Structures are given as C-alpha cells and as structure tokens.
Amino acid sequence: METLKRSDKLSYISASKLLQILLIVGVTLLCYSNTFKVPFIFDDIPNIVENPVIRDLGNFLNAG
Questions:
Q1: How many Å apart are CA 38 and CA 28, to the nearest integer?
Q2: CA distances for 53 relative to 2, 33, 42, 63, angstroms
Q3: What is the largest CA-CA distance in the chain?
Q4: What three-state secondary structure class fits 39?
Q5: Nearest Cα residue to 45 out of 56, 54, 36
Q6: Angle at the Cα of 16 (from 10 to 20), degrees rounded to 5?
Q7: pLDDT in 10s for each residue of the chain, 64 residues
C-alpha cells in the first residue's frame, strides 16, 4: 500500500474541504432557488431596498 507524501495529503485535505464547501453552497442554492424570482413584499422595500446602512459594505467592515 502506498503512503501519501505530505504535499499529497495537503492537496487531498484541500480538495476535501473544497468539495464540502461546494456541497453546502449547492444545497443552499437548491433550497432557496424557488425564492429568487419572488418580488419584495410588505416591509422589504424600506428595510432592504431603501436602507442606506445595508447598501454600503463599509458599514459592515468598520463595525468592529
């Protein structure tokens, strides 16, 4: 039986983690796929579309 070199082990771990991340992203997109074409309702317009706080990424980066 062959033993894996250190670099082979690291690439296997990286590939495994990448596969896990892609699987999570894929399942999440599949779960929410029926909501992508639904229009905003009720309070979505003022709380999401017109909210200046969430429209600027700088508000989240400097929050610390």
A1: 17
A2: 56, 26, 19, 11
A3: 63
A4: coil
A5: 54
A6: 145
A7: 556 566 666 676 788 888 999 999 999 999 999 988 888 788 888 888 888 888 777 777 765 5
Non-local CB neighbours of 59 within 8 Å, separated by 6+ positions: 53
Tokens of 41: 């309702």
Q: How far apart are CA 32 and CA 28, in angstroms?
A: 6
pTM of the entire predicted model: 0.49
Both tokens of 36, joined, read 């992508």
Provide the token pair at 25: 């992203």
